[in-house]
Amino acid sequence: MCGIVGFVGSTEPQNIIVEGLKKLEYRGYDSAGIAVVNERGITIRKHVGEIKNLEALIGNERLGGRVGIGHTRWATHGAPSTVNSHPHQDQAGRIALVHNGLIENYLELKGELLEEGVQFKSETDTEVAAQLIGKYYGQCHDLKEALDKAVARMEGAFALGLVAADQPDMLVAYRKNAPLVVGIGKGFNMIASDFAPLLEYTKDVYLLENGDTVVLTADNVDIYDESDKKVERETLHIKWNVDAAEKGDYEFFMMKEIHEQPQGIRETLDRNIDENGRISLYGIDLTAEDLARFNKIYIVACGTAYHAGLVGRYLIEKLARIPVEVDIASEFRYRDPFVDDKTLFIAISQSGETADTLEALRLAGRKGARILSIVNVVGSSVARESDDVFYTWAGPEIAVASTKAYTTQLLCLYILALYFADLRGTVDEEYYRHFIDELKAIPEKQEEVLKIEDTMKALAADYYDRDQVFFIGRG
Ligand code: GLU
Fold first, then answer.
1. What is the pLDDT of residue 467?
2. What is the DSSP letter of 25?
3. Closest among 266, 269, 250 to 399, alpha carbons compared
4. Which segments within 180-231 are labelled E, that is strand?
């Protein structure tokens, strides 16, 4: 699942979209493309490989127009190639579509379209959606209606961005189990897979719910829910600066993020420990009675967050004396886990969009568990679908190998364990005070460690080539 950027306004969208795609590069991708609606209809430029290949293809050409969509692809259906890259069109060239995610029943829909004589250019599931939307648009001449009709027939997970050749001022989007946010501007509006491409232009966003269809023009955003009712969605003001999602003077994002750890820990401590040195959790509403009801805690996550969970088990069992099970989300959801209304379910996710964790959380919710999440991205799906949320204030984590998100997740688990212990009366006041003092000392200690960066680099270079050294990385 990769990246989408869309823009509608009074300026030409080309640069905003290409620069926006670059802000999503960290997610990994194999090709990139852009579609702009201009006086010639729809102009599409796409290329396999890096965004710079797309830029080279475009050269000095000005695509014009006032509305456009862009995409970075992570191939799921069909090899990485220029023809398979997005945007895709219907055969009449009425519309152009970008898509993140996958359409599970695409073969069935493709079979039906083939029988009607539709000819396909690519191997993707996305082109099937484009052909279907194009067909409906030809019938109803209403872009939103065409999209709604098509998604009603599509199964799977998808974020979609759609433009039409005869709609030079309109962008339509849809979201279901794949991330998509709307950036609210003055005289323009945008869509993107995450906040990073928006921050330079606006910090106000709408958080979409699953099943929402959005119609954007330069001056207006209309959101319709699953049952096609026009709705108001929560707006969020992002506090990150543009440079929070950029490398700055660092060579790599990972290096920058290693150095941002003390800042993330400080911020998370400040927001959860009051001036009297007591834990005060905004967003968590668990009482001593609630805790007394739980006979078990389940911590469920994927990858690095799962490893934070393993530490969390030791902490919670030791301090609060509640049995804890830790599970990988993909395993949890394919078993029939022992979860009921006496279970506290803790989901951990940096992005808050981890698909398996989200599904595991929903499963636990259906079984009656209370859901608490530890999440970095404010307003993300995991956060919104939880009863209680404990945010890690690490700021955007771009590098795939987790650093500051992991250490702030650990901090949240330390705080949570002590909070539970305090509610259950399993630690005394002296221990509590000492524990808080130790937590508060962490940022300074981290800063001390980061001062010997050059020594660590020299040691790493020394060990790098040795056969007997094992590197354990994120799977
Ligand atoms: N399933 C689509 C494809 O293979 C979209 C993949 C993506 O999310 O980038 O083209």
1. 61
2. G
3. 250
4. 181-184, 188-192, 204-207, 212-216, 221-224, 230-231
Domain that holds residue 401: 253-450
Does 464 reside within a domain?
Answer: no
For residue 470, tell me if it sits in a domain. no
For residues 336-346, one letter each, b for 16 or more C-beta atoms within 10 angstroms of the residue's C-beta and e for the rest, the string is ebebeeebbbb
Residue ranges of the chain with per-residue pLDDT less than 70: 1, 242, 466-475
* Domain termination site, one of 245, 266, 296: 245
Q: 143-149, long-range: CB within 8 Å, 24+ apart, which pairs?
A: 143/95, 143/167, 143/170, 143/172, 143/215, 144/172, 144/213, 144/215, 144/224, 146/95, 147/172, 147/174, 147/213, 148/213, 148/224, 148/228
Q: What is the pTM of this model?
A: 0.75
Kindly give the number of the ligand 1 atom that is closest to the alpha carbon of 101: 8
pLDDT at position 457: 87
Query: How far does residue 101's CA lie from ligand 1's centre (Å)?
Result: 5
- Rounded Cα distance between 378 and 202, Å, is 16
Question: How much is the pLDDT for 474?
Answer: 46
109 Cα to the center of ligand 1, angstroms: 17
Q: Which residues of 6-32 are buried (b: 16+ CB within 10 A; e: fewer)?
A: bbbbeebbbebbbebbbbbbbbebbbb
| Whole-Å CA distances, 137 to 6, 126, 161, 387 | 20, 16, 15, 40
Q: What is the pLDDT of residues 412-451, one digit of tens each?
A: 999 999 999 999 999 999 999 999 999 999 999 999 999 9
Q: Is 125 in the pocket of ligand 1 (CB under 6 A)?
A: yes
Parallel, antiparallel, or unpaired for β 181-184 and 388-391? unpaired
256 lines ligand 1 (CB under 6 A): no
Rounded distance, CA 199 to CA 205, Å? Answer: 10
pLDDT of residue 468: 57
Residue 187 domain flag: yes
Q: Are residues 231 and 271 in the same domain?
A: no
Query: Are residues 417 and 438 located together in one domain of the fold?
Result: yes
What is the pLDDT at residue 180? 92
The per-residue pLDDT for 290 is 94
Measuring CA to CA, which residue among 337, 325, 323 is closest to residue 299?
A: 325
What is the number of domains present in the chain? 2
